[in-house]
Amino acid sequence: MSDTVIGVIMGSYRKDSYSKKIADHIVRQFPEGYATTFISAESLPMYNQDLDSGGNHPQEWTEFRAQLGKVDALLFITPEHNRTFPAVLKNALDVGSRPYGNNKWNAKPGAVISVSPGKIGGFGANHHLRQTLVFLNVAVMAQPEAYVGEVTSMLAEDGSVVGESAQEFLKSIADAFVLWIERLG
Ligand SMILES: Cc1cc2nc3c(=O)[nH]c(=O)nc-3n(C[C@H](O)[C@H](O)[C@H](O)COP(=O)(O)O)c2cc1C
User: Fold this and answer.
1) pLDDT in tens, the chain (185 residues)
2) CATH number of the domain where residue 117 is located
3) 83 within ligand 1 shell (Cβ under 6 A)
């Protein structure tokens, strides 16, 4: 049987992104039978409906949509920008949702992890993202919630996640997501 593939979509493409360090850790927590693949939203041209209607949309959109079509589940890992999720991620959601009637996010199980150096753990980003995902008919895991606050205290200089409670928490999110995917499968 082939692996269940989880597409990981990031809200940050910063070189030293804390969210990416958390993502690199969590993708290693999934059991046998699961594979993960990062689907980059970094270079997607901004969505403009004229390009879809004209039938000459950017190649990057075609590739991104094709990649979404190949995954079984979606894991979003994002920082917070001004109490919501970053524009790069919103653009990706828009690109994947169109052309009308061909929503590539549709009916996939999903989970959201928000990451911040601050104490609130990106709560605003997490919930705004959930709101859009619900509209896009992603079956977003409700519990456990994953607000990774004070992230710098969890990261060693080499970027690895340190501390038993941080490691256990991230493992519990991965385990719960696997159960969620299986329940919906
Ligand atoms: C434009 C901008 C807005 C930000 N707004 C917030 C915010 O609302 N809440 C928050 O916790 N951090 C905020 N931050 C700080 C980010 O959490 C911080 O830059 C973090 O390192 C970004 O995630 P990354 O390390 O994965 O790139 C903001 C940063 C930027 C650049």
Assistant:
1) 799 999 999 999 999 999 999 999 999 999 999 999 999 999 999 999 999 988 789 999 999 999 999 999 999 999 999 999 999 999 999 999 999 999 999 999 999 999 999 999 999 999 999 999 999 999 999 999 999 999 999 999 999 999 999 999 999 999 999 999 999 98
2) 3.40.50.360
3) yes
CB of 122 shorter than 6 A to ligand 1: yes
The reply to whether omega before 99 is within 30° of 0 (cis) is: yes
At 53, give phi and psi (nearest 5°). -65, -35
* 117/148 Cα distance (integer angstroms): 8
Are 26 and 123 a contacting pair, CB within 8 Å?
no
CB-based contact 178:31 (threshold 8 Å): yes
Enumerate the H helices of 27-122 as residue ranges. Answer: 49-53, 59-70, 87-97
User: Looking at the 3D structure of the chain, how many domains does it have?
Assistant: 1
SS3 184: helix
Please tell me the residue having the least CA distance from ligand 1 atom 31: 81
CA of 81 to the centre of ligand 1 (A): 5
End-to-end CA distance of the chain: 14
> If you take atom 2 of ligand 1, which residue's CA is the nearest one?
81
Quote the domain boundaries for residue 149.
4-184
